[in-house]
Specification:
The protein is mainly beta and about 110 residues long. It has strands at about 10-15, 20-25, 25-30, 40, 50-55, 60-65, 75-80, 95. It has one domain (about 10-110). It contains no helices and eight strands. The strands form two sheets. A four-stranded antiparallel beta sheet has the order 1-2-3-4, with no helix packed on it. The mean pLDDT is about 85.
């Protein structure tokens, strides 16, 4: 298993300050905000680029990805386990698209 410590592109602290979402080499990972705990879980695992994680609340994470049409869109990821709502403790995750537009959702120039 490869350990990536230098290639963090983006990160976001959950509202309750217990979890950190990281974008590393185009994938989204979640870890606990505790230096004594080193477990990190992937919540997006595929060939597309996932970036810019932002917590909607303590159990839902927003991020951008080019997985649908090569254009960056906004997605959510949450626990898919009905008995475990904590995204970090869940073994199953559900990714849902939020936007489907012909424009790149990461193009900050168009929002000015």
């Amino acid at each position: 298993m490869k350990t990536l410590t230098r290639d963090i592109n983006d990160y976001s602290l959950s509202p309750n300050s217990k979890l950190i979402a990281l974008s590393v080499c185009g994938e989204i990972f979640i870890s606990e905000d505790d230096k004594e705990k080193s477990r990190t879980i992937p919540v997006s695992n595929h060939a597309y680029r996932d970036n810019e994680p932002v917590w909607l609340n303590d159990s839902i994470l927003l991020f951008t990805s080019d997985r649908a049409n090569g254009n960056f869109e906004i997605y959510t990821v949450r626990s898919a386990d009905t008995s475990q709502s904590n995204i970090f403790n869940s073994l199953k995750h559900k990714v849902t698209p939020i936007t489907r537009t012909p424009l790149d959702e990461t193009d900050r120039q168009r929002y000015r």
